[in-house]
């Protein structure tokens, strides 16, 4: 089981120049059950937030906006194990003193509480968590 960070989904949606192709491949592997993945429902909140920000920029540039509902439906159609936020996770995350963002505390606590210690992420900050193994999406297949 591997935890899927929000940036993998966002980079696939926005077709990020560096990570987009690899992130789409990762999501396809999840779709075809070649990777067993899990996430916190916080990932969905973050995806909606980022897509709203992207749409605001696209609107100012008079470009077509992303369909948030279609993107969320596509994500929810993937065979991902979704972990709910709980008071246990919030309490657990409040004990951390890592040099990462507070939102990442929630992801880390979700992983720890559910005994998941590998994460696919482009976020190098997660390398600061001593009990996690972060796998960069570019290097993902080489690690397996």
CATH superfamily: 5'-nuclease
The count of strands amounts to 5
The number of distinct helices, counting runs of at least 4 residues, comes to 7
Which structural category do the helix and sheet elements fall into?
Answer: alpha/beta
Overall domain count? 1
**Distance between termini?**
12 Å
User: What percentage of the residues does DSSP assign to strands (E)?
Assistant: 5-15%
SSE order in H/E notation? Answer: EHHEHHEHHEEH
How is the biggest beta sheet arranged? 5 strands, parallel
What is the CATH class? Alpha Beta
Can you walk me through this structure?
The protein has 144 residues and is an alpha/beta fold. The protein has a single domain (2-139), classed as Rossmann fold (3-Layer(aba) Sandwich), CATH 3.40.50. The chain has helices at 6-14, 20-31, 42-60, 68-76, 87-93, 102-113, 140-143; strands spanning 2-4, 37-40, 80-83, 118-120, 133-135. The radius of gyration is 15 Å and the shape is globular.
């Amino acid at each position: 089981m591997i935890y899927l960070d929000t940036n993998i989904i966002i980079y696939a949606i926005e077709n990020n120049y560096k990570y987009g192709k690899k992130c789409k491949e990762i999501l396809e592997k999840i779709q075809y059950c070649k990777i067993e993945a899990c996430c916190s429902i916080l990932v969905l909140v973050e995806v909606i937030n980022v897509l709203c920000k992207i749409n605001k920029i696209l609107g100012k540039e008079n470009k077509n906006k992303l369909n948030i509902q279609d993107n969320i439906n596509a994500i929810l159609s993937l065979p991902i194990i979704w972990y709910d936020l709980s008071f246990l996770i919030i309490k657990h995350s409040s004990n951390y003193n890592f040099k990462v963002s507070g939102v990442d505390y929630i992801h880390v606590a979700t992983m720890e509480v559910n005994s998941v210690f590998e994460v696919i992420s482009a976020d190098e900050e997660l390398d600061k968590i001593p009990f996690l193994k972060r796998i960069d999406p570019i290097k993902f297949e080489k690690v397996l």
